[in-house]
Amino acid sequence: MGYLGEGFRLIRQPGLRLFVIIPLVINILLFGLLFFFMGELFAGLIATAMSWLPDWAWLQALDWLFWILYGAVIVLMLAYGFVIVANLIGAPFYGYLAELTEKHLTGQEVNTDDSWASIIKDIPRALWREVQKILYYLPRAIGLLIIGLIPVVNLVAAVLWFLFNSWMMALQYVDYPADNHKVSFPALRRLLGDTRLSAFGFGLPVALAAMVPVLNLFVVPAAVCGATAYWVRENGATRT
């Protein structure tokens, strides 16, 4: 669980700052847009859920409970939804940030071609990698969203969302150093599945931090650096 804290320390290193600042500007713009649209969706979900319930005064008076329950689900959706969009746009930068972080930690080059031309050339591959994560995420997210729309059953939705988000955060960020070592996304899922407890240990604080306004803007680059440290010490260095 300490890897995220290490990531926050690493992003302050002079050689890594540029690849933190550029995605950070992108993240600020994206978060403002997502916050607005998710707020509109939130209001619609509450109105829909209340219309499904019998028109009993005492039951309708419990709308505050649904605001809390749906609010928790929306915050969790916003947390990972923000990460998905931010990572889709910033993927080429984050892959290179993972390379620089690994070099900082191990003293060894991951890729000898560190030019801007190389980063641009990697954009299609990086975007396809992000699409693979989205395709893995969406059907599971839709299933959890359906659970979250069912009154009473949605009591467990927030817990399930949080556990799923913690797992996705580990997959999302450890994927950057894994991709640099040509480990496929299915192979990474198996690798983290074999060490699921430590993967959840890394993903849990990232998922929590992603829900905190302002802090979540800095979480993405810090998580990339922390995931690279995780990869070097827990999995990748011993298995690639």
What does this structure look like?
- With 240 residues, the protein is an all-alpha fold.
- It has ten helices and no strands.
- The chain has helices at residues 3-10, 18-52, 57-60, 63-106, 116-121, 123-149, 157-180, 185-194, 196-210, 215-239.
- The longest helix is centred in the middle third of the chain and has 44 residues, at 63-106.
- The radius of gyration is 19 Å and the shape is elongated.
Record keyword descriptors for this entry.
single chain, 240 residues, mainly alpha, 10 helices, 82% helix, elongated
Task: List the topology elements.
Elements lengths: L2 H8 L7 H35 L4 H4 L2 H44 L9 H6 L1 H27 L7 H24 L4 H10 L1 H15 L4 H25 L1
Give the oligomeric state.
single chain
Based on secondary structure, the structural category is mainly alpha
Helix coverage percent: over 70%
The biggest sheet, with number of strands, parallel, antiparallel or mixed sense and barrel status, is:
none
The count of helical stretches stands at 10
Shape, per Cα inertia axes: elongated
* Average pLDDT level: 79
Query: Into which percentage range does the β-strand content fall?
Result: under 5%
Helix-strand string:
HHHHHHHHHH
Radius of gyration: 19 Å
Distance between the termini: 23 Å
How many β-strand runs? Answer: 0
Q: Which ranges are low-confidence, i.e. pLDDT below 50, for 5 or more consecutive residues?
A: none
